[in-house]
Every structure is written in C-alpha cells, then in structure tokens.
Amino acid sequence: MNNSGFKLRHCKAGDPLPIWHGEPFSRAALALFAGASGDHNPLHIDSDYAQAAGFDDVFVHGMFTFAFMQQCLARIVRQESLDNIKVRFVSIMQLAEQPVCTGIIRQAEQTETGLQFMMDLNVCNQHGVPRLTAEVRVTLPFI
C-alpha cells in the first residue's frame, strides 16, 4: 500500500488514485475484527453456521471491507479533511479474497475554504469483482 509520493493537492479531475492491495482476509482476521468491532454475527466466524444458512463458508464483515477502504484513503488524506463518505456495499467479500482499492478524482475545484475534491473509490477482490463503491468529498485547506 505505498502511495509513492502521491500528492492529492496536485491532482485534477480524471487523475487516478494510487492502487492499494491488502492482505487476503483470513479466518483469524475475521475473528479479530469481530472482537474489535463487537460484531459477532456467526455468519462471519462460524463455518457450520454459515453453511447451515446456505453459504459456502464464512464471509467478510461489510464494515471490515469499508475499514480497508478507509485505511487506503487515510494514506492520502488526513481525517479532518474528510467532508463526506457515501458507501454502497455491492457484494460480499469472501474469505481468502484479497481486497484491492482503486479510485479516480471526479472533480477538483477551489472553494472559499480550500481545494475540494470529489473522488470515486472502489474495493474489488483480486479478480476485479466489485465489493464496495464510495463517493468521497475532501477539502484540503489552503497552505
């Protein structure tokens, strides 16, 4: 997840964001996220329960996928610069899938308070299957 000197401040509409590759989601990671988040839904941590409910196996918490996207975003934007995030969960991230976050600058403009950017982000699995999309508005203060 290296942003290689990427500077959002220098971007314009149409510019791509860095591509970030996460670690594949493991059973251990799901259990740790369940403990940290308080979301102990057995669909995410109990294979027998998930299979009885009609799934092949446990699957990743939607908010865990969202947390990955936020971690990627935090590599290029300070938390206090985030104005709004609108997220849509598209499909279920499966156990052992590797998340990949991509994005593009949809709009960049100067406002009274700073440089405002509208960005479209996507989290897919390693095969390019969409799992989450987001619209993000960021305002960077003038230096």
From TrEMBL:
Tell me one Pfam family matched here. Answer: MaoC_dehydratas
Query: Which SUPFAM superfamilies does this UniProt record tie to the protein?
Result: Thioesterase/thiol ester dehydrase-isomerase
Supply the InterPro entries for this chain: Fatty_acid_synthase, HotDog_dom_sf, MaoC-like_dom
Query: Boundaries of each MaoC-like domain copy?
Result: 24-92
Indicate what this protein is called per its UniProt record: MaoC family dehydratase N-terminal domain-containing protein
Upper lineage is: Bacteria, Pseudomonadati, Pseudomonadota, Betaproteobacteria, Burkholderiales
